Inverse folding.
C-alpha cells in the first residue's frame, strides 16, 4: 500500500495569509527554516495507479500533481477514484467544489458527515449540479471495500471509527457521535490509520491506532492554550476538538507508548513544530515520531 501526504497544514495552510506568528513569519522569509505546507489531505493506493483521496482540501488542484498518474484524461474524468472524508470541515471538503468538473466524483464518509454535507453546508447538492456524486456511507465499525470507477476491487478496505470531536460551526445541531472519524485503510497485509482531527485519545481510539502499521495523527496544536497565549481568541485546543501534542496527557506521550510509526499532520500555523530547529520539533523526533511534510511518501 502506498500513501502520499498531499498536504499537512491545518485550515488556512502554512504560512497562513493573515497571520504574523513566528512560524508564519519564518516561513515567508526563510522557507528552509519553516517549510510551507498546503492544507491537510492524503492519497492512498494499493497498486500505485488507482488512488483515493482522504479529504479534499481547498489546495486540491496543486496537490493532484503529487500523485503518480493523476493527469488529465481525454474524457475529463476525475483523475482519482474518489474521496474519503473524515469530517465535514471546510478545510477537508471545499476541494469537492473544485473537483466538480470531474464528471463523476464518488464520496464516502460517515452517515453523519453525509447528512451535514447534504443539508448543513450544501456541498454535495452544489457539486451534483455539475457532476455525478455517488455517496457511500461508512458506518463506524463497518468494513467497506473500495472500488474503482469501473466497479473493480481496488484491493483496499476502509473502516471509519468515531473519535472525540464535534460537528463544524456551520452545523451546530448535527450529532456529535460520528461527526469526526478516523479512517483505517487496509490492503489485507498492512494498514494505515488517518486521524487528522481528534479531541482525545480514549481507549476506543487507541485500540484502533494500536493495530495500524502507520498512524497519521492530529498535530494541530502543540499546547492547549496555544491560541490564547498569542492573543488569537479564547478557545483552547481541546475546546476546538484537537488534543494538544505536549503534556503528560498529550498525544506525543500517548502515541510514543504505542511503539508504532506515527506522523503528525493537520498542523496549525502557530505550532512551533513547524520550525525545523525548534525544541518542540526535537521533542517529537526524540520520541520517535515524525512531523509530516507535503510530498512525504510511505510504502507499507
Amino acid at each position: 500500500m502506498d500513501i502520499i501526504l498531499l498536504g499537512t497544514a491545518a485550515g488556512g495552510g502554512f504560512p497562513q495569509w493573515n497571520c504574523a506568528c513566528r512560524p508564519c513569519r519564518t516561513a515567508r522569509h526563510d522557507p528552509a527554516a519553516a517549510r510551507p505546507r498546503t492544507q491537510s489531505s492524503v492519497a492512498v493506493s494499493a497498486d500505485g495507479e488507482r488512488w483515493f483521496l482522504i479529504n479534499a482540501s481547498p489546495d486540491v488542484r496543486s496537490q493532484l500533481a503529487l500523485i503518480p498518474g493523476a493527469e488529465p484524461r481525454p474524457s475529463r474524468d476525475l483523475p482519482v477514484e474518489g474521496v474519503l472524508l473524515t469530517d465535514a470541515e471546510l478545510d477537508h471538503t471545499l476541494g469537492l467544489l473544485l473537483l466538480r468538473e470531474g464528471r463523476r466524483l464518488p464520496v464516502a464518509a460517515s452517515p453523519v458527515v453525509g447528512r451535514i454535507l447534504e443539508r448543513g453546508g450544501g456541498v454535495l447538492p452544489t457539486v451534483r449540479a455539475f457532476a455525478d456524486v455517488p455517496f457511500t456511507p461508512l458506518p463506524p465499525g463497518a468494513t467497506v471495500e473500495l472500488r474503482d470507477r469501473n466497479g473493480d476491487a481496488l484491493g483496499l478496505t476502509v473502516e471509519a471509527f468515531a473519535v472525540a470531536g464535534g460537528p463544524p460551526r456551520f452545523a451546530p445541531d448535527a450529532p456529535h457521535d460520528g461527526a469526526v472519524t478516523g479512517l483505517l485503510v487496509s490492503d489485507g497485509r498492512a494498514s494505515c490509520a488517518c486521524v487528522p482531527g481528534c479531541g482525545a485519545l480514549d481507549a476506543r481510539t487507541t485500540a484502533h491506532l494500536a493495530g495500524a502499521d502507520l498512524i497519521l495523527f492530529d498535530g494541530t496544536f502543540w499546547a492547549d492554550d496555544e491560541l490564547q497565549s498569542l492573543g488569537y481568541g479564547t478557545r483552547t485546543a481541546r475546546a476546538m476538538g484537537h488534543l494538544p501534542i505536549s503534556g503528560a496527557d498529550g498525544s506525543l506521550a500517548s502515541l510514543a507508548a504505542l511503539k508504532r510509526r506515527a506522523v503528525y499532520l493537520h498542523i496549525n500555523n502557530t505550532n512551533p513544530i513547524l520550525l525545523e530547529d525548534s525544541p518542540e520539533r526535537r521533542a517529537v523526533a526524540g520520541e520517535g515520531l515524525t512531523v509530516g511534510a507535503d510530498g512525504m511518501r510511505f510504502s507499507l
